[in-house]
């Protein structure tokens, strides 16, 4: 089966669910608003210049996770997946189309989020704001990181076959566990999916990972989750 | 010509055989009723035919090909498995548009099947506002979307109102008359006999009967006559004299097995026995089916031990 019609179908599915449009809007709004609030608060103190612009991503990535999870979880209710796979029996191709249909809008909204956040942050911080070169790196990193988190959640949702299960694993993980052990900078915590990618949003980093390698580590997590999802899909009964 | 061919199909779940060595063919141009009590393996078989569940052993093909190998399968095979497959937050039209896009089915087919299933007026409403009957119609619309040669419907009459049941009967008859292959599962014999030409009867995953509806009725349904007169004893003697197998209930009404009203009426008239009531018993089809499947039923109620 050709790929493009399958992608088209998955794109229609994403476009026509109000909850998914809501989740993407939440990515933009929470990141910008929480970043702006944190920037205003961080003004003048010695925190990381770039991350004080982008700190709202900690909340924005929860919305990105919700987006990726919901997009896939909608297939695991009421036998929807059976109808989907009856139309597209090539499961690998279908999942690739689904992942693409999740990645493209998340990347678009993520980049928009990055640049809006940057502009707002620079306006709030004034003189202490990070430079443009560093700022653009942060904005692009923001878009990529959000996309990778949505894909990570999408893969995990197929493995767990449930949106509720995925969110009850990922949200406490991102909001609590990662915050707690994340403060112990350096070491294993830096390699957690939500921490590694965020290195790209920092001016300084003292761990093993830099902006590029950090995003790469998160990308590996996402790829791993997607591959596990693809394997599950191929081997289990629908 | 698209026939559905199932060969030695078996599906085990943890040692329990849900489908056990099934072999049958579903031919085009007629409606094949797929009958069996709940848990007999009908849905599992359909999922294996559609390539959704992997068989433990055996094969299922449609027009000689495994379903999973079909390019744009909705154009060849339409199916209804779950009435709840459409997302509640989506409109019926968007649900069908996405399905159509995946198989490059032109958008006008979406409107055509919405019209055909009587959903055109509510097509832009969210599916969560639909009744079960409307969701079944949407499932059938999805099955017809690609104008397929073969149609597999799992319990399509579930939740339909009487008007809907008449509609689905007419639809199934028409699809078969157009030369399509039509397989329709049900756990109700009476309902199935109203539209099917051929029957596949399943019990505990095994094929119990592969027969035309006519043959099934002929072989299994015994004609019976119910008769009442002024003096039951006299009638009893008369029936015994002519070798009829008859039984009498408490009110004195006789039930004559293997008999037709014509014979009994004539007999009584000639003997001068007054007739108060004389009727052929139409029932029997459902009983014959229950009879056949009772031994195999998964969840037959067991008598309680004291």
UniProtKB/TrEMBL annotation, chain A:
Q: Which UniProt keywords apply?
A: Membrane, Transmembrane, Transmembrane helix
The answer, when asked if Membrane is one of the entry's keywords, is: yes
Keyword Membrane in annotation: yes
Q: Which domain of life is it from?
A: Bacteria
Annotated transmembrane regions: 50-74, 95-118, 138-160, 167-189, 209-233
Its recorded name reads: ABC transporter permease
Q: Whose protein is this, by species? A: Streptomyces actinomycinicus
TrEMBL record, chain B:
Output the InterPro entries linked to this UniProt entry. AAA+_ATPase, ABC_transporter-like_ATP-bd, ABC_transporter-like_CS, P-loop_NTPase
* Organism domain of life: Bacteria
Q: Does the keyword Nucleotide-binding apply?
A: yes
Question: Which is an annotated GO molecular function term of this record?
Answer: ATP binding
| ABC transporter domain boundaries | 4-229
Q: Which UniProt keywords apply?
A: ATP-binding, Nucleotide-binding, Transport
Membrane-crossing segments per the record: none
Q: Which family does it belong to?
A: Belongs to the ABC transporter superfamily.
Identify this protein by name.
Answer: ATP-binding cassette domain-containing protein
The species this protein belongs to is Streptomyces actinomycinicus
């Amino acid at each position: 089966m050709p790929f493009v019609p399958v992608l088209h179908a998955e794109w229609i599915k994403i476009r026509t669910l109000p909850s998914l449009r809501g989740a993407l809007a939440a990515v933009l709004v929470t990141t910008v608003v929480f970043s702006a609030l944190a920037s205003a608060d961080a003004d003048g103190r010695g925190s990381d210049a770039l991350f004080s612009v982008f700190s709202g991503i900690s909340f924005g990535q929860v919305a990105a996770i919700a987006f990726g999870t919901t997009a896939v979880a909608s297939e695991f209710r009421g036998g929807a997946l059976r109808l989907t796979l009856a139309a597209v029996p090539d499961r690998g191709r279908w999942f690739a189309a689904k992942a693409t249909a999740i990645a493209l809008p998340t990347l678009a909204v993520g980049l928009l989020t990055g640049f809006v956040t940057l502009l707002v942050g620079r306006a709030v911080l004034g003189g202490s704001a990070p430079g443009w070169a560093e700022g653009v790196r942060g904005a692009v990193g923001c878009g990529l990181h959000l996309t990778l988190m949505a894909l990570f959640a999408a893969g995990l949702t197929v493995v767990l076959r449930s949106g509720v299960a995925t969110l009850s694993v990922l949200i406490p993980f991102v909001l609590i566990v990662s915050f707690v052990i994340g403060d112990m900078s350096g070491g294993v915590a830096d390699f957690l999916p939500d921490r590694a990618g965020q290195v790209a949003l920092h001016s300084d980093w003292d761990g093993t990972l830099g902006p590029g390698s950090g995003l790469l580590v998160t990308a590996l997590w996402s790829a791993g989750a997607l591959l596990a999802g693809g394997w599950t899909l191929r081997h289990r009964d629908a | 010509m698209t026939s559905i061919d199932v060969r030695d199909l078996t599906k085990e779940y943890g040692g329990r055989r849900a489908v056990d060595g099934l072999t049958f063919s579903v031919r085009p141009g007629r409606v094949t009723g797929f009958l069996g009590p709940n848990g007999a393996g009908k849905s599992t078989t359909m999922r294996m035919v559609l390539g959704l569940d992997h068989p433990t052993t055996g094969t299922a093909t449609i027009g000689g090909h495994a379903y999973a190998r079909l390019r744009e399968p909705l154009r060849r095979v339409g199916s209804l498995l779950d009435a709840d497959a459409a997302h509640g937050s989506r409109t019926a039209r968007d649900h069908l548009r996405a399905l159509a896009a995946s198989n490059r089915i032109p958008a006008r087919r979406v409107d055509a099947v919405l019209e055909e299933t009587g959903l055109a007026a509510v097509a832009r409403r969210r599916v969560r506002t639909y009744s079960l009957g409307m969701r079944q119609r949407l499932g059938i619309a999805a099955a017809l979307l690609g104008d397929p040669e073969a149609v597999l419907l799992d319990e399509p009459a579930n939740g339909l109102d009487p008007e809907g049941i008449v509609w689905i009967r007419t639809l199934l008859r028409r699809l078969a008359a157009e030369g399509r292959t039509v397989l329709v599962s049900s756990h109700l014999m009476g309902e199935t006999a109203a539209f099917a030409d051929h029957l596949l009867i399943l019990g505990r995953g095994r094929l119990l009967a592969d027969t035309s509806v006519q043959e099934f009725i002929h072989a299994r349904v015994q004609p019976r006559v119910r008769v009442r007169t002024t003096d039951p004893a006299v009638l009893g003697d008369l029936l015994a004299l002519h070798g009829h197998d008859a039984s009498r209930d408490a009110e004195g009404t006789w039930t004559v097995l293997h008999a037709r009203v014509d014979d009994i009426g004539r007999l009584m008239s000639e003997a001068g026995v007054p007739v108060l009531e004389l009727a052929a018993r139409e029932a029997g089809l459902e009983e014959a089916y229950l009879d056949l499947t009772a031994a195999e039923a998964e969840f037959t109620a067991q008598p309680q031990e004291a």
